[in-house]
Task: structure prediction
Amino acid sequence: MPTVTITARGIERLNSGHLWIYRSDVLPPGGIEPGVVRVIDKKHHFWGQALYSDQSQITLRLLTRDDRPFDAAFLAERIRTAAAFRQQVAKGAQAYRLVASEGDLLPSLIIDRYGDCFVIQTLSQGMERFKSTVVEILQKEYAPRAILERNDVAVRALEGLPEQSGVLAGEEIGEVVVEENGVKMCFDLLHGQKTGGFLDQRENRAAAASYAHGCALDCFTYTGGFALALAPHCDTVVGVDSSADALGQAERSKGLNGFTNVEWKETNCFDLLKAADLEKQRFDTVVLDPPAFARQKTNLESALRGYKELNLRALKILNPGGYLVTCSCSFHVTEADLLEVIANAALDAHRTVTVVERRTQSRDHPILLTVPETHYLKCLILRVL
Ligand code: SAH
Result:
């Protein structure tokens, strides 16, 4: 197995529990093929095995500190361990993340399950080499109807990998229908965002439903995730998104559930919230689940302004006793940042607010304690007094 030597700073990274080692912390390896390598230091001390990339700034992604070769059997074992954890935290769920990259010690591998279909992403050169092995493992363990890849994501460019999507095994599939918290939901695995849906919000949608009442507004609804979860508990629900395709799917899900109290609005959520406030419309439940405003740290200031505006307007249109479910999926925006922004928004809106729950991504998206990047989603549930 090829060997890559890390510097003192590389050792520091591993000692801090991180799995990534940057190019600047690696001695020039020269001519090594992407794949699994042994990681050593200048004194030839062995540190573990990692996925090596000859293009990305993240040159090494640690797989194991063990000496036992990382092969198909090792990979299958990791996937089985991840699956066993889902038996605990996603018990009964039909759609969930089976493997969550670093969170399952399989950096750059995502496997999402939607009933009898699986969607995978291999997001580094090293993991790309294991793609067919992953397909074989899933076939053996689950005999699925289809396995798709959604490798049409921009981060692949950093690895010099092409963007591609399609069926890797099994049949061509259209929309799939899975039940989440008792609600039927349609997902387009080949064309939808991410791998079809935002599985990381499954538990938050259930939590939101437990407080929801009266008139509800779900901003950035995508395919209706929160709106459909709230529908059985509310008099009326309005789901808002700028994507007509996503709302078309939301409408099909609504029909499958026979809901008659939900409507969709295709428009910009900022404009809609502003107009609702001007027209003195009032709601009892508001959900804000915008896309990541801060994809890079340099966007932090403008992202915080965006979150402030959204939360300010949402708080203004909430009735006393109403709930605000507000999310940020920007890694660079911490929970403390978000709480501060909302506190300022509440002061400006002249609303007194309590924090009912401080939540994060569903547990099938594990947070690896020493890899802060794995904790990206914040979801706060607030009550207007
Ligand atoms: N809440 C959803 C996920 C939301 S993803 C769920 O539970 O599944 C973010 C969504 O915001 C996307 O569907 C995108 O189309 C939409 N979006 C982004 N900017 C928007 C804007 N300014 N106004 C309305 N929708 C927007």
Remarks:
- The mean pLDDT is 97.
- Residues 72-89 form the longest helix (18 residues).
- The chain is about 30% helix and 30% strand.
- The CA atoms of residues 118 and 147 lie 5 Å apart.
